[in-house]
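User: My collaborator sent over this chain with a note saying "see what the structure looks like." That's all I know about it. Can you take a look?
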Amino acid sequence: MRIEESDIPALARGCAVLGTGGGGDVRTGALAAARAVREHGPVPLVGLPDLDDDTLIVPLSGIGAPTVSHEMIHGEDEPRRIAAEVERLFGRPPGAVMSSEIGGSNGVAPVAWAAALGLPLLDADGMGRAFPEVQMVSMYVAGLPADLVVMSDVAGNVVTIRPVDGLWSERLARAVCVASGSSALMADYVLTAASARGAVVEGTVGRALAIGRATAGASDPLEALRQELGAVRLVTGKLTDVERRTTGGFVRGTATIEGTGADRGRTLTLELQNENLVATEDGAPLAMVPDLITVVDTETAAAIQTEGLRYGQRVTVLAWPCDPLWRTGKGLETAGPRAFGYDLEYTPVEELAEARRHG
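Assistant: Without extra context I'll predict from the sequence alone. Here is the result:
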């Protein structure tokens, strides 16, 4: 399969949903991807079985605050500088590009980066969604060493980091990102196809395309999306308050949705750190990381990123289960609610929904 220019709108819609509010505004990534495909041709989409064991895979993603990333847009120079540095370090060129996170612009922009480098895109990523911190990837959960991070920014700087572990990769990469204006392009966990097997979330580019296509022509886009995701509808209502700040390379804050129609009288609160992390009602959790929580426009079912939340928007909040690897002990330690500072015992979204139905 190849990703054509005509596929990019559906990919962008799907990645926006999987972004759970983060991963960057898909519009900038989609524009870059469409332009790159026009200039360089369609991008082959390959699976791990299509690659030789020693093929180098470069997971690429933007790192920083989403509110900054759509103003400091990555061009073709940053991935080329990173690919050149990877070739210098390994003695051979990369053989494929992978999205570090399928959510948001970080799921769409790799099409542009792969096109610019003349490489195929791997149908996989390191999250199955979006997460805000560098160590919150499947490769870390799988126990692969986080011993190399290569970063480049719009000013042309290239930084190579040799962290001792995943947590140090986050601290050091975040410091470089902040110094670069809270936006940079990053390759972390450069790996071979052999080591990627069992350590990445496979099929996620295809999944994003299916999600993006689910609402096309649907008489009820919201219900079509809910069914495609297997999601729980947490609330439908009006956005009445948004508190948002950019600090330390993250967007942090809260959003409040007051229910309308059948949900009148209910109030849902979302906690944000680039992504939607926890949804509560009257202090009780309705959904929490690592499960996915996405805010969508009630009429169109288009996902709304955290930086796009505005007072008065008519929205629906959907939540659905994460990839099983995040529900393991190491997965929850890495990206469960306590990893973000919430004193919550992780409970799967489907169990919380079932408890409400019988409550």
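A starting point for your reply to your collaborator: Residues 2-205 form a domain with the CV3147-like fold fold (CATH 3.40.1610.10).
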